[in-house]
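thought: fold this chain, then report.
action: predict
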Amino acid sequence: MAVPKRRTSRANTRARKARWIAGARRADPGLVPITVDGERMLVPRRLVRYFHSAHSGEGSATESGHGGDRR
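observation:
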């Protein structure tokens, strides 16, 4: 396990922790709106490809707005 060479100030530690917590609690954690069987859903960006492949035979899953998925 890595050990810091010097002690960090309490202010720096708390500021870093606050930024981390704020990033973890933000309103949009990478959710993308998609339509599946006529129903609009919000799914994580990393699962969009799964929804496209799971429903590709039906042609019902479409991503709206955020460009195409990356390969």
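thought: worth noting. The CA atoms of residues 19 and 25 lie 10 Å apart.
final: tokens above.
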